[in-house]
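User:
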Amino acid sequence: MIDASFQKLKNTDMHALIVFCHPEPESFNAELKHVAINVLEQCGYSVAVSDLYGEDFNPVEQQSFYAKRRFPEYFSALAEQRYAFETNNLHSDVKREIARLEKADLVVFQFPIWWHSIPAMMKGWMDRVFVNGGLYTSSMRYDRGYFRGKKAVCSATTGAPPESFEPGGRGGEIQQILWSTHYSLYYMGFDVLPPQIAYGVQGHGYSYASEDAFFHQMTRAKTNLETRLPAISDEEPLSFRGWDEWDEMGRLTINHAMQN
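Assistant: Predicted structure:
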């Protein structure tokens, strides 16, 4: 239920994109996706969904995506992405995803953590959609990135309970697990918000709570997302270094406070 104080968000012409990455449409990740859609729409957002499995997105970058090649004799994804962007020959699914990103004020990445990282499907989506020469260049990165002014948040699930992700825990610290994803989003210019984590989605031989406790835990996870989303546009993003703090080689400048 959306608090009345958030009704002011209605009719504000805000747009959200949910990049959903899970092969099972009845999964708990899918339930979280539906929570996000419902809450954001009630808050006045228009919501689009990139369902990577449902739309059969091909995450494997390859030569066949480039009918007109800059270098036919040798495949370089970076070179062909740049050439396709310059000649308006990007693959149709990449054009679609870029259009969705360009329209969005908020991007929610919904996915399970697999093998201490994001799913390969989502990584491949980034490989193909974050187009070299178009959405990033040598000077259009980080705090000068293409998507500056837009917010992004990772909404992820884990199989293990939260205790496993404490410092020194066997699951690894969650900020370390998500660091490369957060930094890649910052690289593209996004204001990256703290992640939303639903811990302990147990099953299939791994169990940490009774059936009753697990049910309440999953209900609480959905409530936590529902409670957070209405004011998410007002949150402070994670802090990263920027261009003014690096020298021409990318090192922290010698007069930076951390160097003293």
